Amino acid sequence: MRYLFLCSILLASCAAPGGRDEWGHRPGPKGFKTVILDAGHGGKDPGAISRHTGQEEKDLTLDMARRIRSELGGSFRTILMRHDDEFIDLDDRVARANRHGDAVLVSIHFNSGPSHVRGPETYYWRVDSHGLAVRLQRGMTAASPAEQGNRSLVRRRLRLTRNPEIPCVLIECGYLSHPVESRLIADPAYRQKLAAAIAQAIRTQAAIGDAGTGPLPRPLYEPPSRPTDARE
Ligand SMILES: [Zn+2]
User: Fold this and answer.
1) Mean pLDDT of the chain
2) How far apart are alpha carbons 161 and 130 in whole angstroms?
3) Which of the two ends of the chain, N or C, has the fewest CB atoms closer than 10 A to its terminal CB?
4) Domain total for the chain?
5) Distance from residue 4's CA to the centre of ligand 1 (Å)
């Protein structure tokens, strides 16, 4: 019994040098000071393009990153993954995020799919990212006037949900393929409302950790996500 206890302590300390482990099998963060905002796509990669408004996902994600940064104000050190229309490979984004400790990463996207589907979605993989993912999805859902056929909160192994060594969540702020939602997303006032909800979710996570976000998901052991794995 004592021997087993000792072993589990040793294993735990080996698995999490310096409080970090590659799996993220621990409760979500509280009291973090740095927020990395990753505007999805950029440069040669436009992401989704709305056939209703002509807007490109890469421009909307950068706009959202800037709005979320301003909504967070001075209470966090906010790092933008990109500041302009620049292409950054997904693995480079992961490497850049891993330079920062005591941080969370929020990757910002807009969605595309069948024309009847609308509403925000949130993707996470790590156990330590579940609470923030729940808060982000709740906040965006409250700001969004309608949802239809969307997947809400999804646990999925993506390069930006599995590979970073810090808590990380990927948000899809709405469907550019939905005629009504796409026009709504074109309205800066709606994007500001979404940004405020996202910033509030981050603030709440920093203040109270996972409290009120339900039971933690079970640990999952999977290798890092590769470009050939799945859609991202
Ligand atoms: Zn995207």
Assistant:
1) 91
2) 11
3) N
4) 1
5) 46
